[in-house]
Design the sequence.
């Protein structure tokens, strides 16, 4: 009897252990919604794949149920808490949307029901804090926040939300948009470079550039007046598109210089910038900008190096004699990459460029005439040389330091500052895009800028995409690594498919080896056997104990 008792005990324990091992935790979570669940066990595989993912890749993950919008928001918020508010303290995000998770859950529910609002359905986006977002105060980087939140979204935000985007929060900016050397707000202080926090992030859209570079969101909105998008984007290894002036509706955004102000996307790659421009111009039906992308776009084209913005010349101001040699070397390498793609590179000169910089100022009485003259000269240069676009480094100076000196002045105040973007596209509202072209030894990234004539946004996106595909110069910041272990599984990149997404909902969570129906049936069978063994235990040893007690009582009488 003792042997039978021990045997049954051992059998029940082993059966229960086997059942638990065969019945995976994921099988216990509901999969009826068609999305990976965030309650219970964390979906580490899905969260790991978010790191460095493009919009198209995240879109595919959502469609396949590899991650939910709720998990996506939670992942980015976790990264913000880990790297922006703590750890290396990048300080790029001013505020978070407290309703983001609830909005994500709603969008997950809609996806499960077979409905998606658009190509950004359930994807979190950050927005510079001079852009109105309903329910948020628009701080302009000031401490004196208005008590009243914006009642409506800026037009650009409305387009994003209309395509299903979640506004995750607002990014830091230079107070009142007035500084371009750095991003320092009186609200939360200085945003630091994503690669080296001892360096300036550039301004005034440094918050958006740093946040995207550090993977605190897949993309962000920013604004540009005088290179205030392209400069910080270049320093932080991101792509920034300054659209043709007035191409994107600027209503609901604070103006600095109305004749120059533009709003555009900051992303990690050109394909995402093109997709964002499709959304911002309400051209998602035709995918006007995304569909044009080709890795071979540079083949047979001609690009023109602007001499005054890329190398030392006697016609340049004295400060241009102090161009950083590493930036020049990176630019030379970028030119070789362009030539290797089958493009012809010519050098052009705009001798009056720095004079134009002053005469084109809106405060100048001859501003309109000066702008017309510059536009005509630029068009003539391209036509004469058979060129499609201009190129030059986004900035030419040695990356500047962050922080303040003992007198309260920012350390960059007296440093050489050469932001090329302010000298050409901003003067006459031309489209410009900066793309990573390498890393400076200080730790900051450097960018290559493409500029074309007004309305030729698709052209520069295509040329930049071709260069990016060949150069592959984007580097993820080492100090803001992935918080989860990356799983070696391919994620389909649909950036070249360019279609308006109204995708089929995945019916179940992606299966692992233990998620197979066979394994679950075995687990159920083992559990039943264990229960039966337990019943036998009770019947045999329960009766045995009763008989033993009865016999003992009879002996006492």
Sequence:
């Amino acid at each position: 009897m003792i042997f039978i008792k021990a045997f049954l005990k051992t059998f029940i324990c082993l059966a229960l252990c086997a059942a638990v091992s065969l019945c995976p935790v994921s099988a216990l979570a509901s999969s009826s919604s068609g999305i990976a669940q965030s309650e219970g066990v964390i979906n580490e595989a899905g969260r790991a794949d978010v790191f460095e993912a493009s919009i198209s890749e995240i879109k595919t993950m959502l469609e396949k149920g590899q991650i939910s919008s709720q998990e996506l928001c939670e992942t980015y918020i976790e990264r913000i808490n880990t790297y922006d508010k703590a750890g290396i303290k990048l300080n790029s995000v001013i505020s978070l949307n407290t309703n983001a998770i609830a909005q994500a859950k709603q969008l997950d529910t809609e996806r499960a029901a077979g409905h998606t609002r658009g190509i950004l359905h359930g994807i979190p986006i950050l927005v510079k804090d001079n852009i109105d977002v309903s329910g948020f105060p628009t701080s302009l980087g000031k401490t004196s926040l208005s008590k009243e939140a914006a009642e409506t979204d800026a037009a650009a935000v409305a387009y994003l939300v209309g395509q299903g985007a979640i506004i995750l929060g607002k990014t830091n900016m230079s107070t009142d948009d007035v500084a371009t050397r750095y991003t320092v707000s009186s609200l939360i202080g200085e945003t630091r470079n994503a690669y080296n926090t001892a360096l300036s992030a550039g301004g005034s859209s440094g918050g958006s550039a740093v946040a995207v570079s550090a993977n605190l969101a897949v993309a962000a909105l920013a604004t540009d007046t005088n290179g205030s998008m392209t400069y910080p984007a270049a320093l932080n290894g991101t792509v920034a598109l300054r659209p043709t002036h007035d191409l994107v509706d600027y209503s609901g955004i604070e103006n600095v210089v109305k004749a120059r102000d533009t709003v555009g996307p900051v992303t990690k790659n050109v394909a995402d910038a093109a997709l964002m421009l499709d959304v911002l111009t309400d051209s998602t039906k035709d995918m006007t900008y995304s569909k044009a992308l080709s890795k071979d776009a540079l083949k047979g084209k001609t690009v023109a190096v602007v001499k005054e913005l890329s190398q030392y010349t006697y016609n340049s101001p004295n400060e241009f004699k102090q161009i950083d040699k590493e930036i020049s070397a990176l630019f030379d390498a970028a030119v070789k990459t362009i030539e290797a793609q089958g493009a012809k590179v010519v050098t052009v000169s705009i001798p009056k460029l720095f004079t134009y910089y002053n005469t084109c100022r809106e405060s100048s009485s001859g501003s309109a005439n000066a702008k017309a003259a510059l536009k005509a000269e630029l068009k003539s240069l391209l036509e004469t040389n058979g060129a499609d676009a201009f190129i030059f480094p986004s900035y030419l100076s040695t990356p500047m330091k962050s922080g303040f000196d003992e007198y309260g002045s920012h350390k960059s105040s007296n440093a050489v500052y050469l932001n090329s973007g302010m000298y050409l596209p901003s003067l006459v509202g031309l489209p410009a895009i900066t793309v990573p072209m390498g890393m400076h030894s200080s730790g900051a990234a450097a960018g290559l800028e493409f500029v074309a004539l007004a309305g030729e946004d698709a052209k520069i996106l295509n040329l930049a995409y071709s260069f990016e595909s060949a150069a592959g110069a984007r580097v993820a910041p080492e100090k803001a690594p992935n918080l989860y272990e990356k799983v070696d599984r391919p994620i389909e990149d649909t950036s070249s498919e360019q279609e308006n997404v109204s995708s089929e909902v995945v019916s179940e969570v992606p299966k692992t080896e233990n998620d197979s129906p066979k394994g679950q049936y075995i687990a159920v069978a083992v559990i039943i056997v264990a229960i039966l063994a337990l019943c036998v235990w009770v019947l045999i040893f329960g009766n045995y104990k009763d008989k033993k007690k009865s016999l003992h009582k009879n002996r006492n009488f």
